[in-house]
């Protein structure tokens, strides 16, 4: 059975049993501050389990793209070494929100597996929760009794809290679960060892394929459990593992989920992947297999993350994506001998394979390919740089063990993987101090953990059952009551309080727009609201203190100055998006944005730099829309298909409901939940202040509107006045500046000529100062030249004599610099290293530096140390 059929049969089965089929949410979560990525099927439904929203249907089924590479659920280091862990995977799920419970969930699971998919019953085992005295939760007798009607009792296993009690996190909805495991071993192995003894013991052919979670409880901050007001079902079945079972394989990578990607890697590298069914493979082949598994797994995770709008970067979710891709590149580099970008070539295969069910990977194929190609090229350059740095570290090492702290520096600063370092060191007869490395790694983890540590108390509910209302499209001030509060303590922000109101004019951060600030005012006090965010469908108002009387009535007042400036920038973003598509082409798509009171930032897909002329055209286009005084046309709650039919743009990577809000300014039509001006005339003026690259095929524009433009032109005017005054108020400023540039160019040529003559003169003068030491032509001097000229002089002097060792120092702008030239024959015959010389003698000038074994340079801070550095240089050749 093909994987596409496996997916279809699952969805068709639950559709026939009254479930609404919904699309996968994006793999990247933009509006959930508690998660970077969708790491489970239930993540997009959290608000329903928490009672903060109402689902479209009490029964839902889907297949969800998931990513598990950070936090509590982190499978990254297992990927490649076994045959069933993945970074990105599909989670097939069926959900009940206060509707059916254990009986229906268990019976449907059994019916689908044994009657539809026809998995032999004798290959299946199930587990039920044995109970927990600690939590005062009893043995799940109900689940046991249901399973007894479907399967032999000796195939039912009691599971402990670790295996059979599922929790969303340290706090939140949770409950006992019932897992279904499949035994895929050959009959001969089954006869020797029962599958029951291998369940939950990490056997690659006895694996969990389905988990039925029965949400009954809410875990509170103190660890205690309370009953949820309604019972829910949350199930998840690993699509890749299910395909393995149905296709008669013993490895996920032998299924058609992965074989097309593996075949492409084989074609590119000329190496062969060996099926898991082949026994007694060589160590070399095993390394090849692991590398190929890493690459075909990781390209899926990276490609879908980019398609959903998350570009690789050095922070947050972008760093996680970059780390996954770099792990794949490194495995190819080390074990498949790939020294050129190649992973990007797998995107086409992935798009053809999964594009029908996940159209985003097909429509974003070119962008994803470009971004991965550039990331590959960049990291391969980093690997080359790391190899050189490692050479330097080895050169400085006494003995055969390299410092673990140095290896960690290569890993942390330059992204050079420790296992690649170990491999290269082993080839050179070296090792590194792993204990020191782990100490440094733990220090970094402790710092990172401390910086992000957050303690969240339970909600104190003041008005139960209240559903808050957002009124901020119409009001900036409103009478409110507080419905719930909780305290949050973080290392980063200290103690803050999150306040939920019964109805609020405060816009929560989302869609690129920052959250509103303002105040809560009662008869006796004023509480400052420093930010507004949304979490699990609740609008959270952040404050540094709580009101003395939380049950009082308040006036919620948005800071209208900030709100007005932000709305101008947001509306200008829409106009600029239209301008870019009109001027550059309809291939332009929004890939990210930031809208705050000070400026707007807009990332978009485009294959080349936006020229100065095109920048002017975009500005003129937007300003024409502003001058046209276009009225805002707002469609607040219309069906999404109606909005799309009207020409509204939907953004990839965004999660839209059945009903949406559509914003129109003339020809600009977008789905948007943000705050906008009532008329484009309010924007006043639009000015682009920068344009540049973010990644391959992604450009970024920053722009300003309103008062910021006024201040921009005022600053320009003041700067021009200062320039004019500096130039003695010439009538023609441009002519005066051009004349100044001409004079400067002439003087620069004269200086260069004089320096050449001075270097030539010094070269002749210093040639006689060489002395022979131990068969080496040695020279160490301080000269009165710039750093660049001193460097040139050192090279020139070194070429005068064979077996030369030249060490020069000079001072530029009050700071010392040193340079060492060593003839290449000396580097070989006497194992001399200019890089090591600079490292050692640089200590005397409080400096550092580096370079090649035959030439290196350094800079320092202490000019008084030059004399001692010069006197110590001779010790290298004695």
From TrEMBL:
Signal peptide stretch: none
Domain of life: Bacteria
Location of the Alanyl-transfer RNA synthetases family profile domain: 1-715
Listed InterPro entries: aa-tRNA-synth_II/BPL/LPL (IPR045864), Ala-tRNA-lgiase_IIc (IPR002318), Ala-tRNA-ligase_IIc_anticod-bd (IPR018162), Ala-tRNA-synth_IIc_core (IPR018165), Ala-tRNA-synth_IIc_N (IPR018164), Ala-tRNA_ligase (IPR050058), Ala_tRNA_ligase_euk/bac (IPR023033), DHHA1_dom (IPR003156)
Cofactor: Zn(2+)
Family matches, as SUPFAM superfamilies: Class II aaRS and biotin synthetases (SSF55681), Putative anticodon-binding domain of alanyl-tRNA synthetase (AlaRS) (SSF101353), ThrRS/AlaRS common domain (SSF55186), Translation proteins (SSF50447)
Gene it is expressed from: alaS
Keywords: Aminoacyl-tRNA synthetase, ATP-binding, Cytoplasm, Ligase, Metal-binding, Nucleotide-binding, Protein biosynthesis, RNA-binding, tRNA-binding, Zinc
Positions with a binding annotation for Zn(2+): 570, 574, 672, 676
A Pfam cross-reference name: tRNA-synt_2c
Enzyme Commission designation: 6.1.1.7
GO MF annotation: an example: alanine-tRNA ligase activity
Location (main, coarse): cytoplasm
Cell compartments where the protein resides: Cytoplasm
Chemical reaction(s) catalysed: tRNA(Ala) + L-alanine + ATP = L-alanyl-tRNA(Ala) + AMP + diphosphate
Annotated NCBIfam families: alaS
Entry text on domains: Consists of three domains; the N-terminal catalytic domain, the editing domain and the C-terminal C-Ala domain. The editing domain removes incorrectly charged amino acids, while the C-Ala domain, along with tRNA(Ala), serves as a bridge to cooperatively bring together the editing and aminoacylation centers thus stimulating deacylation of misacylated tRNAs.
Protein name, UniProt field: Alanine--tRNA ligase
Cofactor note: Binds 1 zinc ion per subunit.
Reported function: Catalyzes the attachment of alanine to tRNA(Ala) in a two-step reaction: alanine is first activated by ATP to form Ala-AMP and then transferred to the acceptor end of tRNA(Ala). Also edits incorrectly charged Ser-tRNA(Ala) and Gly-tRNA(Ala) via its editing domain.
Protein family according to the UniProt entry: Belongs to the class-II aminoacyl-tRNA synthetase family.
């Amino acid at each position: 059975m093909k994987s596409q059929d496996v997916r279809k049969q699952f969805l068709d089965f639950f559709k026939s049993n009254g479930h609404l089929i919904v699309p996968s949410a994006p793999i990247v979560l933009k509006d959930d501050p508690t998660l970077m990525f969708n790491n489970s099927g239930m993540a997009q439904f959290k608000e329903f389990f928490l009672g903060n929203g109402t689902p479209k249907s009490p029964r839902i089924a889907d297949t969800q793209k998931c990513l598990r590479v950070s936090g509590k659920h982190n499978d990254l280091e297992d990927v490649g070494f076994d045959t069933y862990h993945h970074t990105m995977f599909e989670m097939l799920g069926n959900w009940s929100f206060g509707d059916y419970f254990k009986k229906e969930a268990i019976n449907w699971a059994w019916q689908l597996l044994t009657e539809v998919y026809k998995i032999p019953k004798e290959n299946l085992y199930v587990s039920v929760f044995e109970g927990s005295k600690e939590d005062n939760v009893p043995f799940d007798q109900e689940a046991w009794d249901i399973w007894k009607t479907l399967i032999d009792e000796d195939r039912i296993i009691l599971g402990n809290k670790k295996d059979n009690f599922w929790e969303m996190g340290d706090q939140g909805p949770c409950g006992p679960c019932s897992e279904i495991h499949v035994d895929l071993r050959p009959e001969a192995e089954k006869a020797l060892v029962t599958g029951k003894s291998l369940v939950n013991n990490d056997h690659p052919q006895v694996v969990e394929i389905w988990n039925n979670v029965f949400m009954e409880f809410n875990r509170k901050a103190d660890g205690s459990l309370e009953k949820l007001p309604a019972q829910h079902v949350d199930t998840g079945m690993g699509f890749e593992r299910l395909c393995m079972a149905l296709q008669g394989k013993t490895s996920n990578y032998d299924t058609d989920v992965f074989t097309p990607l593996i075949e492409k890697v084989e074609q590119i590298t000329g190496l062969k992947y060996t099926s898991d069914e082949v026994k007694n493979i060589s160590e070399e082949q095993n390394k090849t297999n692991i590398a190929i598994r890493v690459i075909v797994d990781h390209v899926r995770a990276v490609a879908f993350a980019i398609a959903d709008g998350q570009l690789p970067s050095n922070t947050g979710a972008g760093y996680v994506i970059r780390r996954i891709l770099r792990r794949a590149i490194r495995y190819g580099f080390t074990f498949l001998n790939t020294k050129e970008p190649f992973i990007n070539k797998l995107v086409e295969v992935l798009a053809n394979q999964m594009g029908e069910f996940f159209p985003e990977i097909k429509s974003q194929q070119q962008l994803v390919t470009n971004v991965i190609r550039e990331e590959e090229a960049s990291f391969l350059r980093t690997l080359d740089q790391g190899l050189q740095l490692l050479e330097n570290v080895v050169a400085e090492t006494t003995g055969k063990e390299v410092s673990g702290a140095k290896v960690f520096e290569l890993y942390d600063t330059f992204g050079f993987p420790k296992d690649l370092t170990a491999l290269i060191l082993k080839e050179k007869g070296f090792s590194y101090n792993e204990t020191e490395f782990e100490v440094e790694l733990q220090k970094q983890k402790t710092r990172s953990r401390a910086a992000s540590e957050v303690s969240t108390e339970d909600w104190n509910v003041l008005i139960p059952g209240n559903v808050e209302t957002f009124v901020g499209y119409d009001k900036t001030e409103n009478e409110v009551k507080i419905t719930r509060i909780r305290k949050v303590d973080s290392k980063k922000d200290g103690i803050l309080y999150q306040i939920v109101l019964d109805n609020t004019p405060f816009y929560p951060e989302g869609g690129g727009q920052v959250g509103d600030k303002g105040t809560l005012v009662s008869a006796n006090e004023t509480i400052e609201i420093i930010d507004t965010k949304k979490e699990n469908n609740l609008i959270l108002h952040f404050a540094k203190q709580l009101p003395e009387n939380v049950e009082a009535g308040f006036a919620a007042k948005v800071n209208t100055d900030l709100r007005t400036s932000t709305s101008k920038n947001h509306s200008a973003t829409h106009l600029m998006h239209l301008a870019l598509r009109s001027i550059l082409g309809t291939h332009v798509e929004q890939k990210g944005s930031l809208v705050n009171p000070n400026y707007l930032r807009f990332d978009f897909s485009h294959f080349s730099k936006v020229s100065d002329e095109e920048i002017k055209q975009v500005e003129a286009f937007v300003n024409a829309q502003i001058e046209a005084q276009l009225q805002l046309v707002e469609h607040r709650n219309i069906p999404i298909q109606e909005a799309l039919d009207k020409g509204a743009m939907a953004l990839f990577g965004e999660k839209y409901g059945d009903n949406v809000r559509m914003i129109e300014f003339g020809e600009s039509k977008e789905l948007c939940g943000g705050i906008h001006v009532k008329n484009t005339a309010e924007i006043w003026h639009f000015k682009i202040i920068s344009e540049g690259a973010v990644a391959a095929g992604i450009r970024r524009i920053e722009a300003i509107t309103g008062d910021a433009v006024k201040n921009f032109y005022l600053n320009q005017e003041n700067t021009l006045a200062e320039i004019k005054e500096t130039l003695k108020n010439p009538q023609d400023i441009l002519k005066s500046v051009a004349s100044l540039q001409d004079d400067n160019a002439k003087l620069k040529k004269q200086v260069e000529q004089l320096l050449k003559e001075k270097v030539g003169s010094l070269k002749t003068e210093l040639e006689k100062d060489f002395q022979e030491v131990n068969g080496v032509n040695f020279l160490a001097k301080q000269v009165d030249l710039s750093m660049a000229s001193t460097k040139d002089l050192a090279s020139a002097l070194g070429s005068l004599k064979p077996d030369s060792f030249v060490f020069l120092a000079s001072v530029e702008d009050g700071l010392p610099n040193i340079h060492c030239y060593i003839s290449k024959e000396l580097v070989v015959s006497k194992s001399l290293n200019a890089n090591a010389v600079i490292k050692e003698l640089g200590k005397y000038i409080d400096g550092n530096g580096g370079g090649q074994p035959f030439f290196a340079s350094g800079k320092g801070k202490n000019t008084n140390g030059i004399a001692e550095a010069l006197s110590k240089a001779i010790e290298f050749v004695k």
